[in-house]
Amino acid sequence: MASVPNSGPAAPPPPPVWNAQPPAGQPTGYGGFWIRFVAYIIDGILLSVAAGVIGAVTGGGMYGDLDHPNYSGSGVSIIVAWLYFALMESSERGATVGKMAMGLRVVTDQGQRLSFLNATGRYFAKFISAIILGIGFLMIAFSDRKRGLHDMIAGTLVVKIR
């Protein structure tokens, strides 16, 4: 049998580089509408599973049933989603699980890592993007740096890392 080179334990991946500026002469790739939409679907599935687990643990479900509605469930789901998005986007990876799967990262206008406060502002600015009939999200498809209204409010960019 031939020996396989590098068959030992895999080395951990290198830490992310926070300078999102491309090398000289190369344009920055931005995350467009559809790739971000797919990332959000992945995150939505993950959050739905988490909501099911929380509902199973607390008994009943996040929203209750038709006879016994649980209005506090929507508050819990907002808090869980806020913490998920804000903690993940301000983490070392700078992305939620969905964005990581799609090769995206959220950075500031200067290409730096988001603070928890900045990521929190970005999350709650998404409500403004949604309230105006989703136009804040549709702006991603038509703006020069693929920014939605919530990105403009929070001063963030979604960049491609691969």
The strand line-up of the biggest sheet is 1-2
Which overall shape is indicated by the principal axes computed on the Cα atoms? Answer: globular
**Multimeric status of the protein:** single chain
Domains, number:
1
Largest sheet: 2 strands, antiparallel
- The low-pLDDT segments are none
Following the backbone from N to C, one meets helices and strands in this order, namely HHHEHHHE
As a whole number of angstroms, the C-alpha radius of gyration is: 19 Å
Structural class by SSE content: mainly alpha
Instruction: Please report the number of helical segments.
Output: 6
Strand content: 5-15%
Helicity range of the residues? Answer: 40-55%
Integer average pLDDT: 84
Separation, N- and C-terminal Cα atoms: 36 Å
How many E strands? 2
Notes on the protein architecture:
- This protein is mainly alpha-helical and 162 residues long.
- The protein has one domain.
- The protein is built from 6 helices and 2 strands.
- The protein has a two-stranded antiparallel sheet with strand order 1-2.
- Helix 2 (72-89) crosses helix 4.
- The two termini are 36 Å apart.
- The mean pLDDT is 84.
Question: Could you name the key traits of this structure?
Answer:
mainly alpha; 6% strand
Please provide a brief summary of the model.
It contains six helices and two strands, in the order αααβαααβ. The chain is mainly alpha-helical and 162 residues long.
